[in-house]
Amino acid sequence: MSTAATPLQLAVLISGGGTTLKNLLDKIAAGELEAEIRLVVSSNAAAGGLEFARQAN
């Protein structure tokens, strides 16, 4: 049995500026959240938050 924590696998739903997505990305980068964002889905093709997803990919 491994003692290493498995990162939480996340899917993020956005429709606008992506503030929550940006906050999650920042927490992950800072080591404050052990997670991987595996999927970002938007109900709006022009959502500004999609750029955060593109940059993080």
Q: How does this model look, in words?
A:
- The structure is a single chain.
- The protein is an alpha+beta fold and 57 residues long.
- It has one domain (12-56).
- The protein has two helices and two strands.
- The protein has helices at 19-29, 49-56; strands at 8-14, 35-42.
- Strands 1-2 form a two-stranded parallel ribbon.
- Helix 1 (19-29) packs parallel to helix 2 (49-56).
- The model has no long low-confidence stretch (mean pLDDT 91).
Count of discrete domains: 1
Give the amount of beta strand, in percent.
Answer: 25-35%
- By DSSP (H or I, 4+ residues per run), the number of helices equals 2
- The proportion of residues forming helix, as a percent range, comes to 25-40%
Following the backbone from N to C, one meets helices and strands in this order, namely EHEH
Strand order of the largest sheet: 1-2
Low-pLDDT ranges: none
β-strand number:
2
Structural class: alpha+beta
Distance between the termini: 31 Å
- The general outline is elongated
Query: How can the largest sheet be summarized?
Result: 2 strands, parallel
Averaged pLDDT, please?
91
Radius of gyration: 13 Å
